[in-house]
Amino acid sequence: MTQVFVSIGSNIDREIHIQQSLQELEQTFGPLTVSSIYESEAEGFEGEPFYNLVVKFDTDLAIEEVLKKLKEIETRHGRGVGSHKFAPRTLDLDLILYDDKVLRNAKTGRMIVPRDDILRYAFVLEPLAEIAPDMLHPLEKKTFRALWKSFDPAKIRQKKISLPSSS
Q1: Does a structural domain hold residue 166?
Q2: What is the mean pLDDT of the chain?
C-alpha cells in the first residue's frame, strides 16, 4: 500500500465543496486521515478566503490513476479543464506526496511529487505537519514538524477553524 497525501482547497461555496469532496475521497480511496481546516487568504490573486486542509489515505493505485481520480472529483465540482492556477475555485485537489517518491514530469521536468507547495505555503505545510509530523520530506530529509517550526512566520496568513457539524 502507498501512503498518499492530498491538499484540498476551496473558496467558492467552501463548506459544501470541502464536505462533499471528503465524502467522495473516502468513497473512492477508503478511510481518510483528515487535518484541521484552515482559512487562508487567496494567494496570487484577489479573491475570497480559502478553506484548506490535507488528507491522507492508503492505496494500491498507480500515481497516474490517483491523479485521474482527483481530476474527476474536481470536474464534478465544476472545476474546468485548464482553470487558472491563481483564480477562485470550487475545489482544488493537489497530490502533494505519494509515499516518499520523487517524480518529475518527463516532458516538462516539473516536479510532480513531492509538490513544491509543501515548502512554499503555510496552508499546505501546517495541516501536513499536523497529520504526519514525524514523516520526512523526500528531498529535504527533515520532518514536517521541523519544517513547520522553521517556516517563515511572515508567510503565515491563516487560522484554524471549525465547520458546523452537518446533522
Answers
A1: no
A2: 92
